[in-house]
Automatic annotation (TrEMBL), chain A:
Domain of life of the organism encoding this protein: Bacteria
Keywords per UniProt: Signal
Protein name: Sugar ABC transporter substrate-binding protein
Signal peptide positions on this chain: 1-23
Positions of region (Disordered): 36-59
Organism: Paenibacillus albidus
Entry-linked InterPro entries: Bact_solute-bd_prot1, SBP
Segments of skewed composition (Low complexity): 36-54
TrEMBL record, chain B:
Keywords linked to the UniProt accession: Cell membrane, Membrane, Transmembrane, Transmembrane helix, Transport
Similarity comment: Belongs to the binding-protein-dependent transport system permease family.
Residues making up the signal peptide according to the UniProt record: none
Family matches, as PROSITE patterns: ABC_TM1
InterPro entries on file: ABC_transporter_permease, MetI-like, MetI-like_sf
One Pfam family cited in the UniProt record for this chain: BPD_transp_1
Name the UniProt record assigns to this protein: Sugar ABC transporter permease
Compartment(s) of residence: Cell membrane
Transmembrane segments: 12-32, 69-94, 106-130, 150-172, 264-288
GO cellular component entries: plasma membrane
Main localization of the protein described in the UniProt heading: membrane
TrEMBL record, chain C:
Organism taxonomic ancestry: Bacteria, Bacillati, Bacillota, Bacilli, Bacillales
GO biological process: transmembrane transport
Record protein name field: Sugar ABC transporter permease
Pfam families reported for this sequence: BPD_transp_1
Membrane topology value: Multi-pass membrane protein
Entry annotated with the keyword Disulfide bond: no
UniProtKB keywords: Cell membrane, Membrane, Transmembrane, Transmembrane helix, Transport
Transmembrane regions listed in the UniProt entry: 7-28, 63-87, 99-120, 132-153, 174-196, 232-253
One GO location term (cellular component): plasma membrane
Taxonomy, superkingdom: Bacteria
The ABC transmembrane type-1 domain, residue ranges: 64-259
Family: Belongs to the binding-protein-dependent transport system permease family.
Amino acid sequence: MKKRSIGVTAMALLLSFSMVLSACGGNGNSGSNANGNNSAAGAGNEEGASGNASDSTDNGGEKVSLSFWTLFDGGDGANMQTLVDEFNKTHSDIQVKNTKLAWGEYYTKLITAVGNGNGPDIGISHTSRLPDLINQGVVTDLDTTATDAGVDWNTFNQNLLDATVVDGKHYAVPIDTHPFIMYYNVKLLKDAGLLGDDGKPVMEQSADGFLNFLKTLKEKLPNKVTPFALSNANDDPYRLWWALYSQLGGNDLISDDLTVADIDKEKGIQAADYIQKLFTEGYIKKNDPDFYKNFQSGTAAIMMTGVWATGTWESTKNFEFGAMPIPKIYDQEATWGDSHTIILPTTKKEDSAKRKAAITFANWVADNGQIWAKAGHIPSKPSVLEKQEFKDMPYRSDYASVASMVKFNKPSVKTAQIRDNVSFKFLNEVWANKMTPAEAMDKMQENVQKTLDE
Amino acid sequence: MKMKKIRADIQALLFLLPFLVVYILFTLWPMVKGVEMTFYKWTLIKKMDFIGWDNYRQVLQDREVWEALWHSAIFVVLTTPTMIVLSISLALIANRKSLLQKFYRSIFFIPSVLSVAVASYLGLFVFQPYTGLVNSILHLIQLLPGDQEIFWLTETSLAWIVITLITLWWTVGFNFILHLSAIQEIPDEIYEAARLDGANNNQIFWRITLPYLTPITKTIMMLQIIASFKVFMQIYIITGGGPLDQTRPIIQLIYQTGFRKNNLGYAATMSYLLFVILLVLSALQYWINNRKGAEDR
Amino acid sequence: MKWLYRIISACMATLFAAPLVWMLVVSIKEEGMKIITVLDWFKPPYSLDVYKEILTGTKLTVWIGNSLLVAALVMVLTVAVAALAGFALSKLPFRYRTLMFFVVLAGLLIPGEATIIPLYQVAKDMDLLNSYQGLIIPALASPVAVIVLKSFFDGIPNDLLESVQIDGGGTWRIFIRIILPLTRPALASMAILTFIGSWNNFLWPFLSITDDNLFTLPMGIPTLMGQYSEDYVKPMVINAIASIPIIILFVTFERQIVKGISMSGIKG
């Protein structure tokens, strides 16, 4: 009697235990399906196959469902969604589902997910990140698939394309260039008497010229207006430094064979010193967390950031602004820039139909660069620049030429680490006036080498 | 007889089984697996080369590791004593009979139920320069001239203050409840007797209340030290470890090494270093407590 | 003296409430308002548009749901698993009981953070990453809960159990009918602490989840806070929406929660 009851109860217990677990498992799947956004969790279930038959095209094939991971915020994010929607509308046999990930954690998540077999079918990568992703086996080469889908590589801007080719293999489809440029508030410049008859700022293109320009802005404009809206840390001031360093003839922080830290110290110091002055002499508001908003709401006269801000400024009511290449402060024209590309991450099992659909999507996005250009980016196919739709957009033509001035990073697998863990770290201290430019360059040289050796 | 014993064993095993399965799979097995990982170059994608003791050698001379451990220790030192003082003070406030008694109890505890992300972001906005709550109030009451700002997160020492304040605000609730219930358990007769003997409020606090709170305070301190050593999320959101990695705690470094730098093997090695340190801390506390306990008796 | 006391009390309460009040006030303001002094935060116009935008345009509610679901399941299962194990260690005679007790006790010394990297690898090998199971199951073995509950069970006199056995009740019945009802406050206390622990668990979901439908609140919220800080209204609305359900839950169960926490102190 006793024996049986123990057995029964124990069984019941184990059963109920496993039931609860499987119940929550089931919950998990239904949850992610109901939300319609299959990304990693849906990788196992064939969601696309259950799509309604009326949607499938005359080729009678099943609808291919693709998960797509992006890292775009704000205006970029909205425009990418528009592209995806438009693509889905015009391609009844393919369904792309866009998942937005946090900008700061995107690459970590991508590498992690691909590593554990939960990666997406399509992803975004900056060109600067590509060597690292290739090295880790996160992205696949596209040549066979591209040939299958009839992609013509000759239609791309060759400079951009070259950066995506390693050992003769294509690894990504570039969709844009996004250089670091300058924006200005038309009304404020006019108030300060710095707007020419052609509607362009009056500024001598030199180190002193730009300083004088800022000085006039500071003197002529009300106290609460900041002459120059710029972040005090990380990306934007680093990009400005990179631009000036390159204008001086600096050639990245590492040697051509990518193994040795090779900062041109003198040029690095000169560039950092110039920018530090902008902070210490009060042209840039100190530690301003609202620098974007300040320019947007008309309390800052100029601003420097990537071209992606164009879309944001355009959608701001009653905001008259202009866009131009950053001033040529030193000898050579150069600026910071990077390029977004579409990649096909490694997946658990290779599905050639999915891959073909994915590259069709990527090529379509590049072909329709005029939509993506609404966010501000410069399209990756020269033919798009000739489209009337693109030409009709204001501002873009003011800076489309900048694409050729971009000084890209050398294709090192450590580029991102060097930037995030070394350059940001020490340059931030220079901007905060807690380290001299010379000290920073020494530290950077030392730590770049350390990063390369790891 | 033997059958009966075996039956009893099986019966007990069945009761223990759910726990043991999970415990072995997700606590003990990772401990073992982790040891394997420390001997390899091991990325997020796969196991790479066997590298022997390299990770161990490296971790012992890695300045970043020791700095990060030091930052975690700073956090412990900053939060533990302040936490206990604040917790007792709040308990005294909420213990006084008044119309607001229940309100005080709720208001001191509510921050503790917030998600760590909410508490951290809220704190971040409160200490934002120019438009943040603290700076704008300082401007309003003219403690801070209109043209000056305090940049809370760019000076290491100020950043630590902010991290400490937000942590206290967010986590004091639990300890406060523990102290409050301990105070409420002190028998009224003892207070009455003390009053009859002519003790004033001050004397009552130092001679009666505080001694009664000692055991629970010791417990809180023990838990607090170990828990604080494992701090990560609020610092990650508030300062990101900056400025110049001067507030980066060890868990953040482990995360960055494993997932940002894609080096799980080395990250696992750091985890074991942390494990050993926590073990030593626990042993030390146990030893101190037992010795003190013996003296008390 | 009395007044000083009152003033200090009021100041403390204000300090504790201020960030929350500010959050709520800012969250109902219209976007894009100029803020010159702190008083501007409290002036109209008010608007609930951003609430609507966040509730419909983001997955915040999904994440709140995930956090609540995971916390609730972890709570129920952890306490169940721990009660079973604690009962065996406390009341069932079997060989190696002492050894088993020490094996569990050793778990107290293993901090989850120290094993998180290998745990990631183990979960990956078991294909548990990126799933509700992966969020829940690894969290279920809580040596603390086993030991605390065992010590409560120890307090139940054995005579009581024997009387049930004489009546013909089996071990399972003893567990269900006697042990659990008698230690209900302890179980509740354990449950509450487990719930809050899971609610705030950040590191594990952060590492193991990549699908945004499975995010819990602590990892979801940072994805909504943009790269650059913008207007305060949106972040505050996000904070407010993420906090209101849990605050309501707290207010509803305040008595039990406070009691639960105090209980844990007595034994701890």
